[in-house]
Amino acid sequence: MSRAKRKLEHIEHALSTGQTGNAGFDDIRFVHRSLPDVNVSDISLSTFIGELEISSPIFINAMTGGGGKATEGINQQLAEIAAEVKIPIASGSQMSAIKNESEKPSYEIIRKTNPNGVVFANVGSEATAEQAEACVDMLEADALQVHLNVIQELVMPEGDREFKGALNRIEKIVSKVPVPVIVKEVGYGMGKETAAKLNSIGVPIIDVGGFGGTNFSKIENSRREQSYSFFNEWGIPTAVSIAEVNAQVSHENRGVTILGSGGIKTASHIAKSIALGANAAGMAGTVLKWLQLEGLERTIDRLYDVLEELRMIMTAVGASNIGALQKAPIILLGETKDWLDTRNIS
Ligand code: FNR
């Protein structure tokens, strides 16, 4: 099957099969404050992704490009949404544009449509430092995402089977590209061991890309007869993953930014991600679903609603800014608590 066809199938399946799972946010509870001593109008949503200051703690995570006019159209709409709501947008993996010039316009449309916004380029960890730099240049990107997707490759018969040397390549990318590097998972999460490795090579931003949202195992398995169904429930739930990575980077105290993603659907998920230690949260599948099923205007409205709801939650916990929300007391319950207890993370 051609790469372009696979990309279009991913989009189709992401709207159906690929959106089930438990990211663990129901296990997180805020402690209500009856005297929050803050006004809704005082709430500031501004935050930092590395050194990039952004006005709201959400971004549209990597999805597409490289599938001809179809993915170009989706990227154009996603970029319009990002420009309107003033939130960062990540490109889908640009590796196909590195291999094939004719695929570039489907990515470049993001920067064309959103000339002044924050844009993230995207490559896989198989990229060389030169390829990564070319992807940053292609979008005049403000940061570069490097995705880790071992399970997604394993479930595809034509996928990669060689994963040695990725950390070494990422280290070269970090030292070569002129923008901050975000290392991200794609729905399987990262644990403290992975965070420690990324820390050791100076990765400044980690996007946990946890389990509980888009599920590439289910997407890939549903497309073929022979299926590795044991990977359908594989991964570290997003809430757990943020807590694991936060424990590791706080311990090493290197000022690493954590981004929460994987199954982010509501303002409550974003607030809980921040309270667990993230600076911002990424949404991929949910934004795609809104866009495909309800259209561009409604997706913009929904994102504005999410930001307004976030202000309400912050007011209820007495947090006037993102830093204060990160310190808001939370209660951990259920499987999330069991997981973190077993891993000795408090
Ligand atoms: C993705 N994702 C993704 N990630 C990446 O780094 N490069 C890519 O090219 C893609 N492609 C892609 C296509 C489609 C259709 C979807 C839905 C997702 C993964 C994405 O950025 C994110 O990490 C996961 O989808 C988990 O977040 P959600 O979807 O649960 O919010």
Descriptive labels:
single chain; 346 residues; alpha/beta; eight-stranded parallel β-sheet; two-stranded antiparallel sheet; 12 strands; 45% helix; binds ligand FNR; Aldolase_TIM; isopentenyl-diphosphate delta-isomerase activity; flavoprotein; metal-binding; EC 5.3.3.2
Could you explain the architecture of this structure?
This protein is of the alpha/beta class and 346 residues long. The chain is 45% helix and 13% strand. It has an 8-stranded parallel sheet with strand order 4-11-10-9-8-7-6-5. Helix 5 (129-139) links the parallel strand 6 (119-124) and strand 7 (143-148). Helix 5 (129-139) packs across helix 7, helix 8 packs across helix 10 and helix 12 packs across helix 13. The termini are far apart. The mean pLDDT is 95. The structure holds ligand FNR. Ligand FNR binds at residues 10-11, 14, 61-64, 92-93, 122, 145, 147, 184, 186-187, 209, 213-214, 261-264, 283-286, 288.
